[in-house]
């Protein structure tokens, strides 16, 4: 089985594709004797959903939840100068205690006596496990696995905050600094040293700092912080972290980057491709970001889970602004256990991505059922957690099943994201109604909560190559008309200072579970799953390119 990759589409039968429960990975690796004085850490970038890890048949750790990294020190389990066995058990089962959630039901057998035989409609042990979300539950070891050699004295963490005035703060942690000299250097994008200190925690200000800007607002200038640990004149560890001088602020109607208004021209996406499912692939990632730039986009949301670490560094380099989202999609249950797990995932997500200037906001969840009274206390703890860790970025939640008049949590957010599908899930076939419906709906969210609003999902399915005039549902023409009419509403909403961004759903077609409404997946992409443009891609590209230059956007009163 290749790693990284989801295992579901690698086989030849439905048994593996639709498997529920445990699978086992095993790999043997020789570790040389010369490395015996090094600390060895086994690091997984993403295993979905539950993982148990063994080294030489000894359990070393377990981890709950996909899409975020975890690691374990395996120095005492490694046999140096010998072959070592690494084993990972992975379980993809979802329930109401997991995030994301899912239904897990053993089916009733409905036994009956038929001609003297006791028969049931379903076989013994029949079970359904359906995730409460609209994408395929790809499972396995989805991202890279590394056996990392680390010196006994080593850097553990670096935290960097740098704003548009040139002010910066950094803090670095190591496992042991007794007798250790710390050397910190800062370099600009041309590798010129612009700052140095021997302190592990420092505030300072860089004159004439070159700022990090999103696409359409300026250049995405990056700096590098280099931290070295030196013992008796010998370098024992070194770590480099890129960052940018960038400030995110917000009013009751707009989001600002470096005190300039920012309007999101974006996408909802998925890490999804043929054969590999949600497995990381450098070529697919690069193609997706190249297409996003070709479209004139400047942002996206990591729907509906944190994306790969490699992708986050590419966002920084390219100037693509990102809302990073937890794996909490479609939450219906708000138990204390769920809340604790959600807080841990949120904390781990922020810790992983905190130094990326491209990350301008944290999304707590996508389309939770926050009309329930108990959701308010649940989300209050999440907002407080995010603000407690990171005061430099706003926090949002993406609303779908709730409305302006029944949501219990929207007032807690710094800005509001709304998903709406007029012309598709609502009033399919009534394209002339879309403009007024979208304007009415989003305006009422604005009038109720007085927060900045981004419409984070809208659109319609189209089967690639299905053409029909006059348009019908699932044709490329119908998808295009829904998008065009929605854009008329967006123009009016922006003119009225109601929205500060828009994101199409979806960037590309993606796989889902089988339902009567999904013909080999979800086809709301403006690109096919193989990344070929549909009619709607050119409509969206024309719109985004006309609005790409954001240097002249007005500050609303």
From TrEMBL:
GO terms for biological process: carbohydrate metabolic process. Residues 165-246 form the Glycoside hydrolase family 2 immunoglobulin-like beta-sandwich domain. The keyword Nucleus does not apply. It comes from Caenorhabditis briggsae. Residues 16-151 form the Glycosyl hydrolases family 2 sugar binding domain. Plays an important role in the degradation of dermatan and keratan sulfates. This is Beta-glucuronidase. Residues 251-545 form the Glycoside hydrolase family 2 catalytic domain.
